[in-house]
Amino acid sequence: MDQSQAPLLDALRDYHASDRYGFTPPGHRQGAGADPRVLAVLGREPFRNDVLASNGLDDRKSRNKFLSRAEDLMADAVGADTAFFSTCGSSLSVKAAMLAVAGGDRGGLLVTRDSHKSIVAGLIFSGVQPRWITPQWDRERHFSHPPSPEQVEDAWQRHPDAAGALIVSPSPYGTCADIGAIADICHKRNKPLIVDEAWGAHLPFHEDLPTWAMDAGADVCVVSVHKMGAGFEQGSVFHLQGDLVDPVRLSACADLLMTTSPNVMVYAALDGWRRQMVEHGHELLTAEIDLATYLRERLGDIPDLQVLEDELLGEEASCDLDTTQVLMDLSATGTSGYQAADWLREHCELDLGMSDHRRILATMSFADNKQTADRLVNAMTLWRKAADDFDRPPQLHLPAPAELQLETVALPRDAFFGPTEMVPADKAAGRIAAEQITPYPPGIPAVVPGERLNDAVIDYLRSGVDAGMNLPDPADPTAHQFRVVA
């Protein structure tokens, strides 16, 4: 296919050139009705480009097929059979894949327990029974990795009737599973593998990055272009190959979840990013990888700051690593990642991608350059001097891996939608959770609806909040009370 084309972008250019006007939504009429105070902040251009996808950019029957042509070009660019664009993020894309593979009473779905909260939401919406795959666990660093092939095989042995498997790779920290081996394990049973590769949109375009899920044999792969590419927030693509997942069913499941008013700007940015990657991606990503190496070396010179790399690979760890995710362990300073993130934002105007009780994460982009990398190094150098005067953070009560694996005793949907009550933390152990509780970021739930709470996880969440942990989803984000099944 002619990868120099960008059907959605070209259609938007032609829309403006034709002086088209619509007596349709959106009501701001390309900014004519927007408050000048809004325009003073946002500018006019976002409103000019906010047009209807059908009966606006395209005609009322989408006869020009701008979207489908752009999706075909995306699939061709990365070697997938089919690509679907989403303007509701990978949160929608992964739910659509789950419904397509396991929706209805089809034996449940193997799901890695280090999944993002959007996957748990998919379990709640669909009523699918999760068959948990235990992730790999670094006991020393209190850190989970994607599951090994052996752990996936074990899950299949325990649940041979499951409809398919879903794993997350790369993790939010850049650690990657052996997708090829896991895909082979699934395909031996004629079952599909879904990979939530939200952090891997860039992987198809450079050989020095971890293997892209489609190249490794996955059946469905979900990527967030806004994370590691150059799309707007909420821009996601899910790819399909092979014959284990029906493309018509997958499209229909996405249609159930997606908005009927998609944002054309999100679509057009996906289209343009694909062309950019095909034409210039290799050189851009080479520069990004080299810059990440430079950044890691500079950060490694800061006292008591450990830039993790080899520690994330090997036994009880991951098989590959995206080194453009720069994960820093600060524990030798006696201060927390929460403190570092707050200090950097307040004193250096820098925001970090993730922080926890001992780490912070800098997510690199091909848009970065030596100046932005040096800015981070200088900020971390200033932080290190200031950290000597930080108050010691409250102690976080870290459960053993076995204690983190809560027992599932009810379907997530049944627990979430059934009768509930709030109970104080000291009365919650032994009760069945009716909500998900997710330290965010990275967004991996510590508690899933339908799991039986225990004292170790309750103490972990309560002490975590005291130490700076953010819990955006429970009814009581202070973790003094828990919503449980009545």
UniProtKB/TrEMBL annotation:
It holds the Pfam family OKR_DC_1_C. Residues 7-310 form the Orn/Lys/Arg decarboxylases family 1 pyridoxal-P attachment site domain. This is Ornithine decarboxylase. Belongs to the Orn/Lys/Arg decarboxylase class-I family. InterPro entries: Orn/Lys/Arg_deCO2ase_major_dom, Orn_Lys_Arg_decarboxylase-I, Prn/Lys/Arg_de-COase_C, Prn/Lys/Arg_de-COase_C_sf, PyrdxlP-dep_Trfase, PyrdxlP-dep_Trfase_major. Residues 418-472 form the Orn/Lys/Arg decarboxylase C-terminal domain. GO terms for molecular function: carboxy-lyase activity. The keyword Magnesium does not apply. Its cofactor is pyridoxal 5'-phosphate. SUPFAM superfamilies: Ornithine decarboxylase C-terminal domain, PLP-dependent transferases. Keywords: Decarboxylase, Lyase, Pyridoxal phosphate. The keyword Lyase applies.
